[in-house]
Design a protein that fits this description.
By secondary structure, the protein is α+β, with helices and mostly antiparallel strands. Helices cover about 60% and strands about 10% of the residues. This is histidine kinase.
Length: about 425
């Protein structure tokens, strides 16, 4: 919604005019009422029994019209004073009809002072006009005069009451529209805040996913490369064929790592979050079907993995299949860095869950870890398992070694 432009200099001027507008309008109304009576006093002929205009007539006319100035703040006092002026004017029996000011005053009070005060002003005005008609000379106040006077007074009161009711209804509608607009604006702000928060959470989740994938790919590849490079360095002179095999393994692992990196960079480069076919290969993401190739990489580094498989895992949801593969990759990489030369990998598959266990007996006494890790491996495993409401247990064994146990519900839905 576009906010209307405001003139910086218009506000104070408009506020000052609002403060003086009502007194100016009411004063002008009183002057016009008095002027109309004064013109009638000058122009209207004197009938039998009536008195010619004198200065007192104009003064009484001022008393009748002047209360119009204060009718907004003192409506009943205004109509009472005007009635007194009406009676005093009628006692003088002047020729000009004085009821026009009373009509205008009753209309204005009904318009500005509310229903109850408007009705009271109408009754007081009727009393004043009846008194004025009763004081007229014989033959001046006819039946037509009575009917027209009371009818005009009633019409003035009803017109003021009707206009006031319409103004209140319009004001109420504007207030309702303003409240609805404010509610819509509040809802729009809350919606924008929720969207911004959802975007922030999505960005944070995507950054975490990218960090996990980068860690899994780079940590595994670098660990294998470090081990194989160390083997090649130590046997280069005595066993050149073993050094060549280690270098060949380094080449394969490095190429596969670059493929994974290109795939992730292709996703990051594409506007819609899908793979960029110009930068990323079209091969599917790795899963448990690639477990044999993964184990061969570790075997080439000297880590022997004994596998126990108690159920088919080919029907896993794609996201769970990839995460299970990454969990095994990271768990065996941790064994390669810190554990012994033998690792036990167990996969327990049931219709409701997939359980992964990796256990090693530890490195021989006095030997140092092959590589130093980043410290994010177990944390990454926990984050991947949490996406599926899975549970992770990672702890050293009492007799040495380390055991990693991950349980993943098969029916869980991954987020991100």
């Amino acid at each position: 919604m576009r906010r209307p432009e405001l003139d910086p200099g218009a506000g104070p001027v408009r506020g000052r005019w609002a403060a003086v507008r009502e007194p100016v309008l009411d004063g002008a109304g009183a002057v016009l009422l008095w002027s109309a009576m004064a013109v009638a006093l000058l122009a209207r002929p004197v009938d039998a029994g009536q008195s010619p205009a004198t200065p007192a007539a104009y003064l009484w006319a001022a008393v009748i019209a002047a209360p119009f100035v204060v009718h907004r703040h003192f409506p009943l006092i205004a109509i009472g004073v005007s009635d007194l002026g009406l009676i005093g004017y009628s006692l003088g029996r002047y020729s000009a009809f004085p009821g026009y000011a009373t009509f205008a005053l009753v209309f204005a009070v009904a318009l500005h002072a509310g229903r109850r005060r408007g009705l009271t002003a109408y009754l007081l005005g009727a009393v004043g006009l009846i008194g004025a008609l009763l004081l007229q000379p014989a033959g001046v106040a006819t039946a037509s005069s009575w009917i027209s006077t009371l009818l005009t007074l009633t019409v003035g009161w009803l017109a003021g009451e009707n206009l006031r009711a319409r103004r209140e209804r319009r004001r109420h509608e504007l207030d309702e529209a303003r409240r609805e607009a404010e509610q819509r604006a509040d809802e729009a702000r809350r919606l924008l805040q929720r969207r911004a928060e959802d975007e922030r959470r999505a960005i944070a989740a995507e950054r975490l996913r990218i960090a996990r994938d980068l860690h899994d790919v780079v940590a595994h590849s670098m660990s294998v490369i470090a081990v194989q490079a160390g083997v090649a360095h130590h046997v280069a002179d005595e066993r050149p064929e073993a050094a060549r095999a280690a270098l060949s393994s380094i080449e394969v692992v490095a190429r596969e790592g670059l493929v994974e990196l290109r795939r992730m960079l292709g996703v990051l480069r594409s506007p819609d979050g899908t793979e960029d076919t110009d930068a990323a290969p079209t091969s599917p993401s790795e899963g448990l079907r690639d477990l044999d190739k993964l184990l061969s990489h570790f075997a080439a580094t000297g880590l022997r993995v004994e596998v126990t498989d108690t159920g088919p895992a080919a029907d896993l949801p794609p996201a769970l299949d990839v995460s299970a593969y990454r969990i095994i990759q990271e768990g065996l990489t941790n064994v390669l860095r810190h554990g012994g030369p033998v690792a036990e990998l167990s996969l327990f598959r049931t219709p409701a869950r997939l359980r992964i266990e990796i256990h090693d007996a530890g490195r021989p006494a006095g030997s140092a870890p092959v590589t130093v890790g980043s410290g994010h491996g177990i944390a990454g495993i926990r984050e991947r398992a949490a996406l599926f409401d899975g549970r992770v247990r990672a702890e050293p064994e009492p007799g040495g070694g380390f055991r990693l146990s991950v349980e993943l519900p098969v029916q869980a839905v991954a987020v991100g």
